[in-house]
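Design a sequence for this backbone.
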């Protein structure tokens, strides 16, 4: 079963999370028809995005959707992982062109240096006119060198946006999508740059900064193979057996799609009656497939007519059908 395990290091301002997606990640690939729907390099990238999105959502406890997107100028034009507050997630990718064998991030989405990573927070109770928060970063490091791993991009993003040191390890194959996140906890009074600098000085005075660095170095010894094959309990023991951990009850992320026939109808109404009737005349029906879960929604001429007929003008439903 898929699990998200959170833990704290006693006596240190450091928190961690470990996610291991099994059945839920396999369901994402199954919904695409087969694992062959995406090249293996794209499946790995998408799995890492799902694991990272799950960790980030669990880290901030945001009441809404966290959407992690890669906009590419390579064969992967768009990759999306969306995670809700209750850890429901879905993912999709748009691939155009050939994907090089064993391609890393640069060859997939940043061939000409124009790739971007966007993290969007869309509140569940968003008010009319309120825009979701979005942060966008390039796929380059501080020295403008192209980054080859999604984990590096997100570490850079979290340091820029939250001023919090983070270590992130991600891995995925066709069976498992997994990730480990280690992050320095914010210190009270460090909400601005001056307070952050003072907090860092205080940490140095009492040796807590060294504590985070030690934990981060231990985390960096975890291999991708271990992350994919070992249970959360074995990983934590393998890395931190000398530390005192407070481990919380695991949560269980799961695949779920928010598409529905009503939402698709709303989209079709936005196209207008002429466009829909033109599709009916050409193809005999209007067919829309969900890019996330693969469900096909079909609307015939009667369905389209009802979409554009005011409710008060529609015939009553026979009593026997009610």
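Sequence:
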């Amino acid at each position: 079963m898929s699990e998200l395990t959170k833990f704290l290091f006693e006596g240190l301002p450091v928190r961690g999370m470990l996610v291991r997606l099994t059945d839920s990640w396999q369901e994402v690939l199954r919904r695409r028809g087969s694992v062959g729907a995406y090249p293996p390099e794209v499946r790995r990238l998408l799995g890492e995005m799902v694991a990272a999105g799950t960790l980030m959502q669990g880290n901030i406890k945001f009441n809404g959707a966290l959407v992690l997107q890669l906009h590419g100028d390579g064969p992967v034009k768009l990759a999306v992982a969306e995670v809700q507050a209750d850890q429901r997630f879905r993912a999709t990718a748009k691939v155009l062109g050939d994907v090089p064998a064993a391609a890393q991030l640069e060859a997939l989405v940043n061939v000409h240096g124009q790739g971007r990573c966007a993290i969007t927070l869309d509140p569940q109770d968003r008010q009319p006119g309120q825009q979701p928060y979005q942060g966008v970063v390039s796929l380059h490091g501080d020295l403008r060198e192209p980054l080859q791993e999604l984990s590096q991009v997100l570490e850079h993003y979290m340091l820029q946006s939250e001023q919090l040191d983070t270590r992130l390890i991600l891995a995925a194959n066709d069976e498992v999508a997994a990730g480990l996140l280690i992050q320095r906890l914010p210190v009270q009074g460090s909400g601005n740059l001056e307070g952050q600098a003072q907090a860092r000085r205080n940490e140095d005075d009492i040796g807590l900064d060294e504590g985070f660095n030690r934990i981060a170095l231990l985390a960096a010894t975890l291999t991708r193979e271990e992350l994919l094959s070992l249970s959360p309990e074995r990983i934590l023991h393998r890395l931190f057996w000398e530390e005192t951990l407070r481990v919380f009850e695991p949560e269980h992320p799961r695949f779920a799609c928010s598409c529905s026939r009503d939402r698709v109808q709303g989209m079709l109404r936005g196209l207008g009656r002429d466009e829909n009737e033109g599709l009916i005349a050409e193809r005999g029906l209007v067919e829309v497939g969900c890019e996330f879960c693969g469900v096909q929604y079909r609307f015939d001429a009667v369905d389209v007519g009802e979409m554009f007929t005011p409710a008060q003008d529609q015939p009553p439903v026979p009593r026997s059908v009610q």
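The CA atoms of residues 91 and 221 lie 29 Å apart.
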